[in-house]
Amino acid sequence: MDLEEAIRRRRMCRNFSDRPVAPEVVDRLLQRAVRAPSAGFSQGWSFLVLQVASEVERFWSAVADEAWRSDPNLPGLLRAPVVVVPLCSPEHYLQRYSEADKVGHGLTTAGAWAVPYWTVDIAFATMLLLLGVVEEGLGALFFGRDRTAHERLKTEFGVPDGWQPIGAVLVGWPAADWGPKGSSARARRPLSEIVHRGGW
To answer: Is 0.85 topped by the overall pTM?
Structure first.
């Protein structure tokens, strides 16, 4: 599959079958994800990968209360056999930009960065993961929860201080009726509305 096709076919899947995903497929997805660019090649990213049913259940218990999980529209999500939690570490960037070849940029504190590149870079890596999912014929859904849920997730899985989840990626085989729902009914904005050539 070429890149153009992967980009056009990428959609968020909200209904998974319970068919397992082979561990080597997950490894390929992660190997692709870490090919993303990172500022100063800091690579301040990590991925919490949950592939065992009991781990996935612990994930849902940590990030969603019983009322949320009992929503009749959600069983298709709960069947996803793999959960990948992308995380970033600002400290990796501050350390890297304190090294001799980078210190001159003045980015040794988080507040000095106009944009938090630790978040940008893990988002790049997550996008590569999502495109890899398409190439493998799988489905994926990226979603986020509130800060409290993220803290519960970190506690449940022993994530060290300083690592920030940006959300979670569900990975699995799409169910027969996995198609677009909800927000996907909105039209894609035309380039004429979002591209400003030569100035705003």
So the answer is: yes
